[in-house]
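Quick start: read one record
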Amino acid sequence: MNWLINERVFQEIHLLYRQLFIGYMGLSAITIGFLSFIIVYLVRRERRTRQVVQWWQQRQSEWRYAESERLRDSTLQLLFSLRRQLELMQLQSVEPENELLETVEQCQQDLNQLSDRLFSAYTSDCLLSAIRELCEEIEGYFPHITFKIQGEGEFKSPTQVDSHFLLIWLRELLQVLLDNDGVESVVIQLITSSVQQVQIVVKAECCDEAVCSKLHDLATLNYLCQTFTVLARGRCHAQVQGNALNYSLLWPPQANLLLTSTPFLGTNHDPVSDFSR
């Protein structure tokens, strides 16, 4: 009798241990699956961040190269010519002519423009004025485009780093948009909210809705939007509304930016075109 009781107890204990083991294995499988999901997500996020930073750095490197070539081919050539003429005039004891003064003024103007492109004088004072200055510069490359700048409420400028990055990003966005035919005008609106966030809306008005949809699907613009999200730690949303393509940027002032550099202007080359994969 005792033997039967002990056998029954043993069977019950064995069944209990078996159920506990199956439950533990099931729980472990769920835990392992969850951890695997987290690891895959973090790896993909890190890969996307690395791609965005590499893409941004390459565009800035190409812009710096283009600016240095422009400086060597224009301003430095003018300065060399001016130096030679002054040396000859010194030897001949001749008074400077108006042509030399015009050359000096042209050099000064080119250097001022280069200084503004590298870092706007309005960056630390007024972001709205810096954006207006940027649009005036780009309008020189695209005189057929109408620009309109709007500001609402009292705007407290973010840090110089924030403003500088935003100007770089806006230059990139406008350059890519205007390099494509069909854009007729651009409206940039600066908005401040009650939650101490900065919002900028860029509205590109196109000749028809098909052009807006084509621009919306450009790999470069989509990658640029991801760049803003990663580097500015804000939000970038693109939406087609009729004949307009709207970009809404929202980010908190004093955000810790991952990277700032100088902008790229003057080429349609897209070093990374498969970002969506």
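DSSP finds seven helices and five strands in the chain.
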